[in-house]
C-alpha cells in the first residue's frame, strides 16, 4: 500500500494519522469506507428498532386509554340509572317497573363497559334491598330479567306498559 499524505498504512482496513497536540503524539484511526457503511447500517437499524418500539407503545397506550374511560362511563351509567329510578317514582305507573329497569340498564350500557358495570352493580344492590323489603322471588327474577334485557341492548319498549305517557 502506498502512503498517503500524513497517513501510514497499518492494515487493509485502517489508516493511522499522526498528529502532535501540545507536543504529545496522538494516533487517530480513520476507518475505511466499508466500516463507515457498517456503522451507518447499525445506526439505521437502531433507529428503526426505536421507531418500531415507539409505534408499539402508541398502540398499547391507545388500547389502555379505553380503560381510562371506564370510571367516566360508570358515573354516567349511574346517572342513567338514577334518572330511570326518578322517572319510575314520578310516573307512579302500575306494572311499569320492568320498563324502567330495562330502560335504566339499556341507557347505562350504551355508555360502554363502565356503564354496564354500574348498571349491573346498581341493579343487583337494588334487588337485594327489594328482597329484604318482602318482594317475592318471582318478582325479583322478573326484574333481573328486565335488567339483563336492557344491559344486553334489548329494546326497553319490550317491557313498556300500555298507556304509559310518551314522556317516559
TrEMBL record:
GO terms for cellular component: high-density lipoprotein particle. Keywords: Acute phase, HDL. It comes from the Eukaryota. Pfam families: SAA. The keyword Metal-binding does not apply. Residues 129-168 are annotated as: Disordered. GO terms for biological process: acute-phase response. InterPro entries: Serum_amyloid_A (IPR000096), Synovial_Prolif_Regulator (IPR052464). Belongs to the SAA family. Major acute phase reactant. Apolipoprotein of the HDL complex. PANTHER family: SERUM AMYLOID A (PTHR23424), SERUM AMYLOID A PROTEIN (PTHR23424:SF29). This is Serum amyloid A protein. It comes from Gambusia affinis.
Amino acid at each position: 500500500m502506498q502512503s498517503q499524505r500524513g497517513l501510514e498504512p497499518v492494515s487493509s482496513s485502517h489508516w493511522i494519522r499522526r498528529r502532535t497536540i501540545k507536543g504529545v503524539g496522538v494516533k487517530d484511526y480513520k476507518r475505511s469506507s466499508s466500516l463507515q457503511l457498517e456503522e451507518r447500517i447499525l445506526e439505521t437499524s437502531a433507529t428503526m428498532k426505536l421507531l418500531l418500539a415507539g409505534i408499539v407503545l402508541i398502540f398499547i397506550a391507545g388500547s389502555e386509554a379505553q380503560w381510562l374511560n371506564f370510571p367516566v362511563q360508570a358515573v354516567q351509567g349511574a346517572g342513567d340509572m338514577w334518572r330511570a329510578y326518578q322517572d319510575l317514582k314520578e310516573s307512579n305507573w302500575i306494572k311499569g317497573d320492568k320498563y324502567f329497569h330495562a330502560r335504566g340498564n339499556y341507557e347505562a350500557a350504551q355508555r360502554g363497559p363502565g356503564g354496564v358495570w354500574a348498571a349491573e352493580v346498581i341493579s343487583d344492590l337494588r334487588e337485594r334491598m327489594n328482597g329484604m323489603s318482602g318482594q317475592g322471588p318471582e318478582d325479583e327474577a322478573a326484574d333481573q330479567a328486565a335488567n339483563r334485557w336492557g344491559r344486553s341492548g334489548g329494546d326497553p319498549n319490550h317491557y313498556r306498559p300500555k298507556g304509559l305517557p310518551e314522556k317516559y
